[in-house]
Amino acid sequence: MLRQVAFLAVWLVAVAATFALLYRRWPPRGSADLRLNTAYWFFNPLVSDVFSTKAWFLLAAAVPMAICHQAAAKLAQQQPHWIQWLEMVVVADFMAYWMHRLLHTPRFWRIHAIHHSTEALDWSASLRHHPLEAIVVRLGQFTPLYLLGFDLQMLTILYPWLVAADLFTHSNLSWTYGPLHTVVASPAWHRWHHATDREAVDKNFGVIFSVWDLWFGTFLRPSSPHPQGFGLASGDSPPLALGNHLLYPFQ
């Protein structure tokens, strides 16, 4: 446990230093509540990710899932590793898109509202999500990959890359990727997903690829360079304390 805490602390400092350098050149508007988001940085890996991982492994141990995995593994794991990696990234992000849309439905919104409660967007805002959200997304992303036969070891390697992509997409940098913005999700594009502007409601769900939004009708080409603001449009934001956030979906 102490080793994991030390690793998270070093990684947090390294990530914060990296974005601090980037923000000197491309400064975002405002800064998120770093103290609360830092609490999430340690709470999610040490608590919520542990429970969501165990929940997923219990599901994966089910006999029908294990049989499907073994049958599909004969094909999936015969491919070169780089092809498997690309396939896993595409499938994981495709499922993340649909899990993200699910979290925006009325049944799940109060869970996901924790993530949207930040009123100043930067990289640390990606850390702010409820433990129940981690379970929903983990089950939705990893179960199809497991059923398709991909190696569990490769799944554990994939996860940190997905986290890194999420950090960068939420960085609120002014990068747009030019003509590639309809394929790859840029920070300038995804920040509109967190905007309170009416035109941005339920738009730009992609984390790695924006093409899913283009194909499924949720792609936003904003009418202005910057949103009017970030946060919950309803104004029903939970108090800035970790305990209040954890209780918020049940209130």
Written account of the structure:
With 251 residues, the protein is mainly α. Helices cover 58% and strands 0% of the residues. It has ten helices and no strands. The protein has helices at residues 2-25, 34-60, 63-76, 81-103, 109-116, 131-147, 152-169, 187-190, 211-215, 242-247. Helix 1 (2-25) crosses helix 2 (34-60). The longest helix has 27 residues, at 34-60. It is globular, with a radius of gyration of 18 Å. The two termini are 32 Å apart. The mean pLDDT is 85.
What's the SSE blueprint?
Blueprint: H1 2-25, H2 34-60, H3 63-76, H4 81-103, H5 109-116, H6 131-147, H7 152-169, H8 187-190, H9 211-215, H10 242-247
Helix pairs in contact: 1-2, 2-6, 4-6, 4-7
Discrete helix count: 10
Low-confidence stretches: none
Radius of gyration: 18 Å
Structural class by helix and strand composition: mainly alpha
Q: What is the distance, rounded to the nearest whole angstrom, between the alpha carbons of the first and last residues?
A: 32 Å
Q: Please provide the count of β strands.
A: 0
Helix-strand pattern:
HHHHHHHHHH
Average pLDDT taken over every residue: 85
Please state roughly what percent of the residues sit in beta strands, choosing from under 5%, 5-15%, 15-25%, 25-35%, 35-45% or over 45%: under 5%
Using the alpha-carbon principal axes, give the shape.
globular
